[in-house]
């Protein structure tokens, strides 16, 4: 029989899967909401769908579901402090922060490596998270380097300088 996998073991094992870091933002009745995520995954190219997994009960989770739209700002290497700011529970994540606004007044993080603006296509509960599938309506990309996350720590993602491998898939 397989031993039960406790949350710490799950976090540690999945922490070996290196990711980028993003901030999911939305706005409800003029109030901005946002949280740091690394659960961002591409789901479909045509139609363009992505997903994020948001903790049940987090303020931003309810806000995203209520608003029916959200933006994903993929953070650049220099935005570690923003990643920390948007991960602090119970704080006003936007206090003193200049944001720009995308479609439908959803705030986006200035200087991010990329923005993807989405409508909520579907949301469903899975364990202790809500899986939110977004249909991408707008994209903005910038030059620079992304912020990485590996084994519970922020990290750099190194470009090895090879040709892109788009031809494989
Ligand atoms: C690098 C990093 C990645 C995170 N990824 C997620 C995630 O994918 N989903 C999630 O629900 N929380 C994630 N968190 C935790 C949330 O950012 C944190 O709980 C946040 O404060 C909750 O937002 P709230 O203030 O709206 O409740 C992550 C935190 C960090 C630092």
UniProtKB/TrEMBL annotation:
Annotated Flavin reductase like domain residues: 14-156
| A GO MF label | riboflavin reductase (NADPH) activity
User: Do the record's keywords include Oxidoreductase?
Assistant: yes
Q: Which Pfam families match?
A: Flavin_Reduct
Q: Where is the signal peptide?
A: none
**Which Gene3D superfamilies does this entry report, sorted A to Z?**
Electron Transport, Fmn-binding Protein, Chain A
Keywords, A to Z?
Answer: Oxidoreductase
Q: Which PANTHER family match?
A: FLAVIN REDUCTASE, FMN REDUCTASE (NADH) RUTF
Question: What's the protein name?
Answer: Flavin reductase
UniProt source species: Actinomadura spongiicola
